[in-house]
Automatic annotation (TrEMBL):
Gene3D superfamilies: 3.30.1120.170, Alkaline Phosphatase, subunit A. This is LTA synthase family protein. It is a multi-pass membrane protein. The lineage of its organism: Bacteria, Bacillati, Bacillota, Bacilli, Bacillales. It comes from Anaerobacillus isosaccharinicus. Residues 249-539 form the Sulfatase N-terminal domain.
């Protein structure tokens, strides 16, 4: 086993050609990150990650050349370097047009390719030839080399792939520290590339996409009939006076970041946390028992629920995994009724894969970060401050054809709830959680921003003819802060029952000039928004596959299913295999919850079936 004892140096020298290629590809990728993609880092650790992330895949890719013998080994090294360059360059050209990275579906999607065709040459520059510099160097070295090519020994191959794996694990570990739940939650391609590198990202993407594809293959058109029979049997007739009430009016949807109902009508040192929202209750339909139904996809899940009346996934984000599906979403339906549909949100368009998903949902336009002027002065935390965001959105709103359906997504009230001093209108709390302490101040700020928005809309004459739907996207304070939460709510402890009740988020339907406003108790959730909007617009939807029910329907059942299978009815709360009495939170026998357990399961099951099977691609003759 003398060969196994070869020293590291010898190993490097034996495959000098390949290691040179690894080094060149590594450095080249980093330079492209900085010069081509202009990726910047806020922290040293992030920059370090960016620097090391091309290494593991460079070793892995070029390591395959060890399987070849003689001169062919060198030729393979050159070809693999060329292949890697083509992948990088493909991403770069795509990035120059879309400010985004390639995904496998995009490569095979004709729509996107069409967009690119005309301009692809404009996106290239003679300077791009520098990208071939490593391939050139390798070619020259190859032509000049006279020494015989060293034969690969078995242990070398194993050692090399072990090295690649080790490098990848180290890389991933640091990335997980820097971005917890990177692979399951933060589905921003730029973030993935920043953290694990372009090639690893493509492999990860291939894995995700192929998983989705297999489930799709086994689905058939009879599946959709089965699901529709189920949803139609749950259909409830709308309320006659509310049906068509919003016809031809502009619809303004406001997704309020991380707000939970417990802040409504609550004070800190005698100061209301949400004075504007508290006041809005009396001029609106306010839903006191409205729950978010999101999971790991957070904001994107709430968007999915609202636009489709389908559940998001129990893990991962449907926005990321199933953007290639066929949908029959609100924007698409409204477009067919001559509505202009858009989203305004001052973040990267690729965050949560929004750019691709919005296309699938049928939005006409996404006013992303590029539509906003974001400076150091007007941003905090995740970016543009809410008040500036709303202010700058007015011009966009005015530029749109009417009637429009526009969704606004706020950002300032996002973890870690940072705020500039001048925007802090109330004191922080004094619990043992800094997060909760700051949270109330950013909620207060968001409330202020909403007031500014309404005032501006009134001043611009955009208020009267609009219908407003405001809802919280998901929780802001997780169970991790239960101790602090119990201090704030003056409770002894937060039980699983309380945790479910804390998933309530504010929900308003505000119709300017309307008189019959009231606070409604119906137990409901984000899944109910789509049928409600359709009915308010006078659109018949008996045949739509929806898992929610019109919030105004006199026939609706008070019922909501959360994504983890918990559910709430008028009288009971079910969570973690326990049934509770809703009024008191007292544990009761399971038999009380039993009748609804099956329905909760079926709702989730059939909704998942729709998504995994991409069932809406099958035509149903309505
Ligand atoms: C990002 C914003 C926040 O664009 O919507 O996303 P979240 O982390 O809340 O899902
Ligand atoms: Mn959110």
């Amino acid at each position: 086993m003398a060969s196994a004892k070869l020293k590291l140096k010898e190993l490097l020298v034996r495959n000098k050609f390949m290691w040179t290629a690894v080094f060149l590809l590594w450095i080249k990728t980093y330079v492209i990150y900085k010069v081509g993609f202009r990726i910047s880092s806020e922290k040293l650790l992030q920059e370090f990650l960016l620097f090391i992330n091309p290494l593991s895949s460079a070793v892995f890719l070029l390591g395959f050349c060890l399987f070849f013998r003689g001169k062919l080994k060198y030729i393979m090294v050159i070809l693999v370097s060329l292949f890697a360059t083509i992948v990088l360059y493909g991403n770069l050209v795509y990035y120059r047009f879309f400010s985004d990275f390639l995904t496998w579906p995009v490569l095979f999607q004709t729509g996107n390719a069409k967009d690119l065709q005309g301009s692809v040459f404009e996106l290239m520059s003679p300077l791009d030839l520098f990208l071939l510099v490593d391939v050139m160097i390798l070619l020259i070295l190859f032509l000049k080399s006279k020494r015989p090519v060293a034969e690969t020994i078995k242990y070398e191959k194993i050692g090399l792939f072990a090295t690649a794996l080790l490098l990848f694990i180290v890389n991933l570990t640091i990335a997980q520290i820097e971005r917890p739940q990177l692979l399951t939650r933060a589905f921003d391609r730029e973030m993935l590339v920043k953290n694990i590198g372009t090639f690893n990202y493509h492999i990860y993407d291939a894995f995700i996409q192929s998983k989705a594809k297999t489930q799709r293959v086994f689905a058939s058109s009879s599946d959709i009939l089965e699901v529709r029979n189920y949803t139609m049997s749950n259909y409830k007739k709308p309320d006659a006076t509310m049906f068509g009430i919003a016809q031809d009016k502009n619809i303004i949807l406001i997704s309020m970041e991380s707000i939970q109902s417990f802040v409504i009508n609550k004070e800190v040192d005698g100061e209301e946390i949400t004075p504007f929202l508290n006041n809005l209750i009396k001029d609106s339909y306010y839903f006191e028992n409205f729950y978010h139904q999101t999971s790991q996809g957070k904001t994107s899940d709430s968007e999915f629920l609202v636009d489709n009346s389908l559940f998001g996934k129990d893990s991962g984000a449907v926005f990321f995994t199933h953007s290639g599906n066929e949908y029959n979403a609100l924007p698409e339906i409204l477009k067919s009724k001559d509505y202009y549909t858009s989203v305004m949100h001052a973040n990267n368009k690729s965050f949560w894969n929004r750019d691709l998903m919005y296309e699938a949902l049928g939005y006409d336009h996404f006013f992303d970060i590029a539509s906003y002027e974001v400076t150091d002065e007007n941003s905090i935390g995740w970016g543009l401050k809410d008040a500036d965001f709303f202010e700058q959105s007015i011009a966009h709103l005015k530029s749109q054809p009417t009637p429009f359906y526009t969704k606004f997504i706020t950002l300032t009230n996002h973890f870690p709830f940072e705020l500039s001093e001048e925007d802090q209108f109330i004191d922080e709390l004094d619990t043992n959680s800094r997060t909760l302490n700051q949270y109330v101040t950013t909620v207060r700020y968001m409330d202020y921003a909403l007031e500014v928005f309404f005032d501006r809309l009134k001043a611009e004459g955009l208020y009267e003819n609009a219908v407003f739907i405001l809802y919280g996207d998901h929780y802001g304070i997780s169970d991790y802060h239960n101790k602090a939460m119990s201090m704030f709510l003056e409770k002894e402890e937060i039980t699983p029952f309380d945790s479910v009740q804390l998933q309530r988020v504010p929900m308003y339907i505000h119709i300017p000039g309307h008189v019959n406003n009231k606070t409604l108790q119906t137990v409901s959730g984000q899944i109910d928004v789509k049928p409600t909007i359709l009915h308010m617009l006078g659109i018949e939807d008996r045949n739509e596959i929806q898992f929610g029910t019109d919030l105004f329907s006199p026939y609706r059942k008070s019922f909501v299913v959360l994504r983890d299978g918990s559910f709430v009815t008028d009288t009971h709360v079910y969570t973690k295999d326990t049934c509770y009495l809703k009024n008191t939170g007292e544990e009761v026998e399971m038999t009380y919850c039993e009748p609804y357990r099956q329905k909760a399961k079926l709702d989730l099951h059939y909704s998942d079936k729709m998504i995994y099977g991409d069932l809406l691609r099958f035509d149903l003759d309505n």
